[in-house]
Amino acid sequence: MISYADYSRETAADIARLRQRIEKSGMPPKRTDYNLLVGTWNIRAFSTVYQQWTENPRSPKRNLRAMASIAEIIRRFDVVAIQEVKRDTSGLRLLVDQFLGPQWAVIISDVSAGTGGNTERLGFVYDTRRVQPSGLAGEIVLPPIEAGVPTEQFVRTPYIVGFKAAKERFALLTAHIKYGNMPEERLPELQRLANYVATEIRDRLTEEAEERNLMVLGDFNIDKREDNPLFQAFVSTGLVVPEGLRELKTTYGTEAKYYDQIAWFMGAFDLMSEDRAGVIDFAGA
Description:
Order of helices and strands: HEHEHEEEEEHEHEE
Radius of gyration: 19 Å
Structural class: alpha+beta
Number of domains: 2
Shape: globular
Strand order of the largest sheet: 5-6-7-8-10-9
CATH class of the largest domain: Alpha Beta
């Protein structure tokens, strides 16, 4: 396992600056029996890693120095949904096994095949001291509109996993909506996802349901909010983005976007939210 003592001098300086950014973000510390910290992160093309602390003139560009920063952020959470894990999961395994350590674990989906699937997986990295899988796990497949008529499926299949923390149980559904050439190309998938979670999950909840608390999170490629058609499609069936998240923008790129979302159905969510949320801006840290 890679420890802080193994970090290069430059990496140690990175981590010091990153910790200042995390403190500045107002992120609360983990407190047993008090809070549960959930995050979502699109780690772009998360695949192989250059096994050195120095830069690689070729490919892959992501090295151990970058992995140290990724681990520093993730270990502040209890469970993190990760998008863009590639077919080769060696980078993800390195993160969990060598940087986070034996008290962390990962659950990942199969590869989304096909032209638009980009050989991507979806997954969850979680702190086993704080949460455990409940036994529920599955990929979202849309039912046919009518008998014998197939339904267009998601380009990258959404993934749902159940967890339990102390006496609480909840399910996290993560998705990565296709980007497309134009924003309107994202609309059908957003509508299908909103309809699915409302009719196939929320409306079928009973006292005997496997998981009653559903949270939808991931990269939905929504560039604007409020009257934006993409955002309206996302919330059209009752999903609510909590107040603390509504004005938070993604940290990627120069222009502010709202690609990453966390939402749930208020009337069907028993967990108490403190309405505290934030974005960790690690660019240049």
